[in-house]
Amino acid sequence: MPSAPPAELQAAGQETVLNADVASVHPRKRLLIITDTDLAYRGGSECFLIHLLEGLDPSDFSIDVIQLDRGPATVRVLPDDCEHLKLEYRPLDAIYSFRAWRVWRELGRRVREGSYDIIQSQHEKADLLCAFLPGGPGKTLRISNRRDTGFKKGFLLRTIFRLINHRFDLVIAPARAILNQLVHSEGVEQPRTRYLPNGVDCEAFQPVSPAERGARRASQGLPVDDYLFACVARLVPVKRHGDLLDAFARVAGAHPDARLFLIGEGPLEEALRRQVATLDISERVTFFGEGTDMEHLLPLFDACLLASGTEGLSNAILEAMASGLPTIATAVGGNPELIEDHHTGILVPPLAVESLAAAMLELLNRREQGRAMGRQARLRAEREFSLPAMIRAFSAFYQAERAASAT
Question: Are residues 100 and 160 in the same domain?
Fold first, then answer.
């Protein structure tokens, strides 16, 4: 069963329940969500936002979404029948452009007219807009939703954020590691931070029986009896696929039935293919491309791998957990908040090929132990990281923080 919201939200959630009759006569909370990225691209932060928008109760919330990246006109990212949701496009190439100034003026006018109770921004351009919109105590609540540790920010951008972070009423993140990093590197005040973890759809992502796994592998053209590792991540430098390949090459000789599938696309694909050829493991490594229907594909593997140099709270790990798979991952960012070492998976140091190889060998040599880790991972996903738990936590958070801000 889904767990209760985090401890810091339980009191707010209880108050909301106790005052349900009173709340029912009050107007819906009006949210403005601003995001840099195209919601049609279902990466981790986009999936989080789609799940949140679809899950919040229409009787409690009216939501406008401003996307600063024009999505494909043919892609429908929000349901047609959600009258409480409105998606608008305001494409921005640069935050210092005249177009950005016009968007800021438009949103500022809306806020001054009282259109919103809460503004929540996601990613750098959205954060910069949000920080300079009207707000403050008793007015519109400005929230910055940080999805990673800020590893992409250069010195100048990090300095700018150190100067403007005080303008956000609250900074939220799905991992405590992200909040700790923001406190130390960007000067965010600890009392203004809130931990709100991601959720995973435990109804869509389900473990499968050995018999069903074999049949579905055969229908997908996957090796039926081999041990299949999967890495679900874009082929970009921060994910450090090269470390995975070096580690896999060290174990492949001892286990002829081991296979590695790289699920994702990205600019490093050609370089990684050359590395595979150089390591002479071309017949053991499959570049699967962009994964679709991951809820059906992921349970067909035996274990997941993630060698990232940094992470926020990984949706790939959450989906593996819900699918009943053990995960080998680097102990960076929010990964240790998801993986209980040698209970639901295995944690290894970052940039440590030998440790990655040793963890792979452990799962290959002790397969029942790996299956037991997968079962525990599934239980933890249901208990602590379900979508209903996430939605309840965010709903209680919005209600409680807006009420506190208004007093």
Answer: yes
142: domain CATH number is 3.40.50.2000
Burial letters for 304-325: b for 16+ Cβ neighbours within 10 Å, e otherwise?
Answer: bbbbbebbbbbbbbbbbbbbbb
Domain holding 75, by residue range, is: 7-199+386-406
d(CA 138, CA 215): 59
Q: How far apart are the first and last CA of the chain?
A: 35
Looking at the fold, whether 260 and 300 belong to one and the same domain comes out as: yes
Q: In total, how many domains does the chain have?
A: 2
pLDDT tens digits for range 233-259: 999 999 999 999 999 999 998 999 999
Structure tokens, 242: 């090269």
CB 319 within 8 A of CB 374: no
| CA–CA gap between residue 80 and residue 193 (Å, rounded) | 34
pLDDT per residue as tens digits for the range 109-146: 999 998 899 999 999 999 999 999 998 667 899 999 99
Structure tokens at 333: 């960012």
Q: How confident is the model at residue 5 (pLDDT cuts 50, 70, 90)?
A: very low
Label residues 226-244 b or e (16+ Cβ within 10 Å = b): ebbbbbbbbbeeebbbebb
The answer to whether 227 touches 255, Cβ cutoff 8 Å, is yes
Mean pLDDT rounded to a whole number for the chain: 89
Tell me: pLDDT of 335 over 80. yes
Residue 58: predicted pLDDT: 92
Give the per-residue pLDDT at 224.
93
* Burial (CB count <10 Å: 0-12, 13-18, 19+), residue 368: exposed
Q: Write the burial class of residue 107 (CB in 10 Å: 0-12 exposed, 13-18 middle, 19+ buried).
A: buried
